[in-house]
Amino acid sequence: MKNTFLYLLLILSSVQSKAQGLNLETCLRMADTANITVRNAQLDIEINDRNRSAYLSARLPQLAYSGDYKYNAIIPGQVVPGAFFGGAPGTFATVQFGVPYNISNTFQLTQILFNPQLEYGLAALRINEEIVNVQQKLTSQDVKYQVATTFFNLQAVSKQLKFVQSNLSNMEKLISNMEALVGQGMVIQTEADKLKISKMTLFNTSESLKATRDQLETLLKILIGMDPATKIDLTADEMVEKSILVDNSAINLPELELIATQQKMNLEEHKGNNMAYLPNISFYAAYNYNYNMKPADNFRVGIEGAFVGLRVDWKLFDGLEKYHKQKVNLLNAEKLANQKELATKQLELKAANAKRQIQVQTNALALSKEQLKLAQNVYDQSVAKLELGTISSNDLITADNGLQQAQTNVVAAYIQLRIAEIEYLRSIGSIQ
Fold first, then answer.
1. pLDDT tens figures, 181-214
2. In angstroms, rounded to a whole number, what is the distance separating the alpha carbons of residues 172 and 203?
């Protein structure tokens, strides 16, 4: 209920600030409360809590009732020596015990006094609680990574689409001017047709980008728990360097936390295998009331019974089962130690590579921006020269292709920078 209320507040706040649109921070917060994968990870935590509560109930007294109604159509007999009744030695007689009707009611109380496996199970559930909490962190980081990459890919596609639509608008103006020159007989129709071909190419690129944008928007809505039919307005992410990096000292490594908790579980299993050598001790008490009837003789009698006891179950030899389990446990301990060492090195390498890529892509983005300025100047000059008739449409198309390539390079450098930043934050577990 609390999560639902928080989600509604986020939706209302996003509606109220629609002019500003959804930013990355808002999307990440919404994913934390509304994403189905994250919610399932939270449910795993609740399930473990419930399992532990259910397991704890084994420590409480257990009360059982059993009732039995029996009609002896043929009363069973028992062979006894004849001498028991004063008969000749070596002879036997059949004696029937019981009555036709028997009603039995039994209440039994059982209380575990000592059960080493129960203690191990409770300890394992406590450690498993840590495991599911760490897994929830990992799930949250993975989902936030998907949200962030989708958000920035959507930003990149939107920026590319703006470039293409601007180019398309400029091309339409050029075609209009060229048609006027054709009408005046100053240029031939072929020159205008070349520009029309470029326009069709730009139009197809625009439609393709729109389809990609719609797909990314739908994916983002699903990731942040919104209805795919709902319209969203994202804030524009200006193409600036290192804008999403947070405090680099905030390092959280849930991958290593997970291995550490698995090592704790392995150690607890080792203790549990040792405790399996100990006996189980339980107290029990029972009360029984047995009512016997023989209507033919008008015989009716109730017999009470009660007892208390102490039960000990102790497996003295198990065929070396626990011995081999301990060997497996030691092998798993060594395996986990190797995994931790490898994961530590991999995470350090991943963080270092991502950090280097941030600097590389920062420089690439700055260079791409400079190239875009130059390509824009070349294109503007080509347009002016075409209108003066000093160059052909081929030269303009070449300049236009150069401009489009420069625009694409800027967008590509931008998204690569954002991906490098997200990769770095993910490598230190700090996507907030």
1. 778 777 788 888 888 888 899 899 999 999 999 9
2. 11
Contact 129, 296 (CB under 8 A): no
**Strand, coil or helix: 148:** helix
| Residue 319 Ramachandran class (φ > 0 left, ψ -120 to 50 alpha, else beta) | left
- Please name the residue that has the structure tokens 């706040």: 13
Residue whose token pair is 């081929």: 394
Inter-CA distances, 315 with 120, 121, 312, Å: 17, 19, 10
Pick from 257, 34, 22: which is nearest to 143 by CA? 34
Highest average pLDDT, of 76-85, 244-253, 355-364, comes from 355-364
Residue 48 near residue 128 (C-beta atoms within 8 A): yes
Using an 8 Å Cβ cutoff, are 405 and 375 in contact? yes
> Residue 60 contacts by C-beta under 8 Å, 6 or more apart in sequence?
none
Q: What angle do CA 342, 417, 234 make, to 5 degrees?
A: 115
Q: Find where tokens 């934050």 sit.
A: 425
- The whole-model pTM stands at 0.76
Determine contact, residues 36/225, Cβ cutoff 8 Å. Answer: yes
144, burial (CB in 10 Å: exposed 0-12, middle 13-18, buried 19+): buried
